[in-house]
Design brief:
4-stranded antiparallel beta sheet; 3 domains; alpha+beta; elongated; 9 helices; Alpha-Beta Plaits
Length: about 475
Amino acid sequence: MATISAGGIGSGLDTASIISQLMSIERQPIQALTKQVTSFQSRLSAFGQLKGGLSALQTAAEALSKTEKFSAFKATVADATLFSAAAGTGATAGSYAVEVKYLAQAHKIASAGFASNTTTVNTGTLTIDLGQLTGGTYTADASKTFSITIDSTNNTLEGVRNAINTAKKGVTATIVNDGSASPSRLVITSNDTGTANTIRMSGVAGLDYDPASNTGSMTQKIASQDAQLEVDGIAITRSTNAVSGVIPGVTLNLTKANLGSPTTLTVASDTDTVKKNIEAFVKAYNDLNSMIKTQTAYDANTKTAGALNGDSTVRTVASRMRSVINESVSGLASGSSRLADIGISFQADGSLKLDSTKLDTALSDPTKDVSTIFGNAAGTAGVAADIVTMAKSMLGTGGLLSNRTDGINSTIRRLNDRKDALESRMTRIESRLQAQFTALDTTMSSMNATSQYLTQQLAALSANR
């Protein structure tokens, strides 16, 4: 059964309002703790942004921290319809005349037409070889030879196709409908290009083919062929259209022949990629610097401060970053050892400015060792390498920022524990006040009843005189 409370009936007091006001006073310490928790949560969020910004700067610096990143080359093809080219490790600058005579092709043979996909074929042991065709001589590769049994369970065109594909031995079987009176034709294609993957079939009448004489029940539709090209007049043959090892560090992917019409392949230093990486580094630094300024700012007009205003940890991060950016890399000549020497300098607001013209000049000047200014070379750590080391130290377990956020989280937990304890105390205080005012009501009600009785008795005595 629910309890009906009607505080103040006996006393005439608004006990609910009185208790509410008293509890409001009692809760002031909780409100102060809540304000502190909110402040620390704002700091924690701001430190999260700081860690994110520093991590982004670390990522940008890592792209510049290894000197080999500055040795990148790019390959450019005058006629990109003929082939694409990719330059990697080991590439050197140079220009080459490339003529693609023939593309590599996969061997393809087809059967005569059958009435349908389920038409019965002859039975027997079907042997399929892959091997080298040179001129009129065929040499099977024993490692690529396999046999399948064609019997009453699979002696249809579909059955043969499925048996070949289930074997997964370097060829693929399909059925093509050519629309004729006997439309279904079994097509066998080598999975790999080149003359070393020429197909031979034997053992089952109607499904035989001899590449040496180009005879049999099956007919050749596409001849196996190696890729043939000339690089600066030197003949090259490869079994695939992906050609590597011809030009050091460069891979060609042939797409079209240009017999008799060489095109030019140019391999040059890829300063564009280096410059983009440097631009990304400057942007990451400026983003982090801007975030720090915002979080540590103080507005005298509104008397409001950023979440990290006056925080010594943030000052340490900003100071170390500026110090690294401003450093002179040891072992390099004066005038070629600092970021300012290649066009990256500080502005009045603490941000970095990139002089693109000066950077382009430095990247093309062999006397400006840009790679060492940024990266690690012969045991000397450059600016980007030092930024990476600094960021890892600050962000890692036990690092400056990790310890700071751990400390804030610990403080928030302690404040919340105190709030919980006070909330429990508030419950007890409110219960006590309600009990006290209920007792007051009861007492006042009793006293009022006694007062009314005495008043009635006195009135009666006066009336009887």
